[in-house]
Specification:
A hairpin with a 2-residue loop joins strand 1 and strand 2. The protein has 6 helices and 6 strands. It has a 6-stranded mixed β-sheet with strand order 1-2-3-4-5-6, with helices on both faces.
Length: 163
């Protein structure tokens, strides 16, 4: 588990070995600056292989309605200075409701228009199982002959174990 704690803000991350993706759980209070700092902290010479894995960004514990268009533009501009190998990773966003869906969608569109990341390498959903299935398809992992089997409790358990 990797905790990124800055001024009481928390992002927790863990690599999910079985499915070859990084799980990031955002807890309140959340800030785009913290997300940028997490990306900026990745060593780039060379980038560790796990840091180049697809990402499941779980935003269900937070409300995104306080993030403005100006905040999103600032975040995208800061993100444009990062290594493109990090900004072009596939990301599955899990949100709590349609309002949060629209905030993430706006951020993805702005990032695409700014040529920072590719919209087609992202998924926004309210369902964890859909995000896991999409990532498993990208990584070629999961259970044979059906949908990947990784429930919320199992995913959260990765946060409890070191590594």
């Amino acid at each position: 588990m990797n905790d990124h704690n800055s001024g009481g803000e928390m992002l927790r991350s863990a690599f999910v070995e079985e499915f070859q993706f990084t799980y990031i759980l955002a807890s309140p209070p959340f800030s785009l600056e913290e997300l940028h700092d997490l990306l900026a902290a990745v060593p780039t010479d060379p980038i560790p292989p796990r840091s180049l894995s697809p990402v499941l960004l779980d935003l269900r514990e937070i409300h995104l309605n306080r993030i403005s268009e100006v905040d999103i533009r600032r975040h995208t501009m800061r993100k444009s200075a990062l290594d493109p190998r990090l900004t072009s990773l596939p990301v599955a966003y899990v949100v709590r409701d349609l309002e949060d869906y629209s905030v993430v969608r706006m951020a993805i569109m702005f990032s695409e228009l700014s040529q920072v990341s590719d919209e087609h390498r992202s998924l926004i959903t309210q369902h964890l199982s859909e995000a896991v299935a999409w990532l498993a398809q990208l990584t070629g992992t999961g259970s044979k002959g059906g949908a990947p089997r990784l429930n919320e409790a199992q995913l959260r358990a990765h946060m409890q174990t070191p590594g």
